[in-house]
Amino acid sequence: MLRFHSYNMPEVYHKDPAGCQLLSYDYNGFLVPPFPNVQEHLDKLPDMPVRDDDVFLLGYMKSGCHWMWEIAGMLVNGSADYNPEQKGVAMMELMDQEKLDQLPSPRVLNNHMFFHHLPREILTKKSKMILMTRNPRDVAVSAYHHLFQLKFMYQYDGDWNGFFELFLDGKLNYGSWFEYTQQWEKDIKDHPELPILIVKYEDLKKDPVSNVAKVAEFLGLPKNDQLFEDIADKCSFAKMKAVKPLLPEFFRTPGESLFRKGVVGDWKNWFTVSQEERFQVECDKFDKQSTLFSTTY
Questions:
Q1: Cα gap 274→20, rounded to integer Å
Q2: pLDDT per residue over 255-286, tens digit each?
Q3: Residues 6+ away with beta carbon under 8 Å from 212
Q4: How far apart are CA 7 and CA 33, in angstroms?
Q5: 164 vs 91: CA distance, rounded Å
Q6: 112 catalytic, yes or no?
Q7: Is the preceding omega at residue 104 within 30 degrees of 0, hence cis?
Q8: Options 66, 112, 117, 146, the catalytic residue
Q9: In the chain, pLDDT over 90 holds for what percent of residues?
Q10: In angstroms, rounded to a whole number, what is the distance separating the alpha carbons of residues 24 and 34?
Q11: Are strands 128-133 and 55-58 parallel, antiparallel or unpaired?
Q12: pLDDT by residue (tens digit) across 7-51?
């Protein structure tokens, strides 16, 4: 079984009610995945050089960032050809800065971090950012399968009911969805001069072509209806899952990949009535405070 090492970062093992533990690393009070050298990567990020044509892709994990990374990459390259690489090659908390520097322009750089973790040059370059958001219920279910399947990294053997408690308490990588999203809302409001496009997973699923066109317009790219249709088709879930699998040995169950179902509303097959009632309480609190985001879908 593969296992990453902590490289002297504090390991945090949060246990669910059944005693099953989930591994994260503590980066100055922020929980991050147990990636190799993740502390070094994050320490260097604020000073990372930014190119004029860089695009930054943001969002809590399992919010559709793989999907948008492929879409945005096709758009900036003007072609509906799949990137032969995986999103991980451009993931800022995963990769060495030297490797990120070697990526050809235009780069679509992705991460699940907060604004204060990112390169300071974003402020002077006015870099364009795309922030993915998704129904937190579907995020929770998708996150469970992701962390459970990647046992070599997260060491989690719990079931959905146990993971629900961890998710509701924010005891997993990137912390609480509610706190994460509230922080990004604050960051966006604190920096009105920065170009940030919020894209809802559900909107992209419902009408992919018009949302691909919206992203293109945001990025300042020429209107090209045929290209937008081709990209929407190539980036459909079924085609992405068929052509973009990760190495099978990473997953607990043979045949699994980072692309599981790609549907809206799968949470209804997992949440109990009690779980949804408890989750809704947190959603109500969030919705009363938020003006940019919503948990109502």
A1: 21
A2: 666 666 667 889 999 999 999 999 999 999 99
A3: 71, 75, 228, 231, 232, 235
A4: 13
A5: 26
A6: yes
A7: no
A8: 112
A9: 82
A10: 6
A11: parallel
A12: 568 899 999 999 999 999 999 999 999 999 999 999 999 999 999
Q: In Å, how far are 28, 198, 256 from 241, measured between CA atoms?
A: 35, 24, 10
Q: Which amino acid is at 77?
A: N
Per the CB < 8 A criterion, the answer to whether 239 and 67 are in contact is: no
User: Tens digit of pLDDT for each residue in 52-83?
Assistant: 999 999 999 999 999 999 999 999 999 999 99
Q: Which domains can be identified in the chain, with CATH numbers?
A: 11-289 (3.40.50.300)
DSSP string, 76-122: HHTS-PPPSS-GGGGBTTTS-HHHHHTSPSSPEEE----GGGS-THH
SS in 3 state form for 208-250? HHHHHHHHHHHCCCCCCHHHHHHHHHHCCHHHHHHHCCCCHHH
In this structure, which amino acid lies at residue 142?
S
Answer whether 216's CB lies under 8 Å from 79's CB: no
Lay out the sheet containing 21-27: strands in order across.
11-15, 21-27, 30-32
* Long-range contacts of the stretch 121-124 (C-beta < 8 A, 24+): 121/48, 121/49, 121/50, 122/50, 122/56, 122/194, 123/191, 123/194
Q: Which of 50-64, 85-99, 221-235, 242-256 has the lowest mean pLDDT?
A: 242-256
CA distances from 69 to 43, 126, 190 (A): 24, 20, 26
CB atoms within 10 A of CB 245: 16
Q: Check residue 294 and give left, alpha or beta (phi > 0: left; psi -120 to 50: alpha).
A: beta
What's the CA gap between 25 and 174, in Å, rounded?
Answer: 10
* φ, ψ at 164 (rounded to 5°): -55, -40
The helix/strand/coil state of 285 is helix
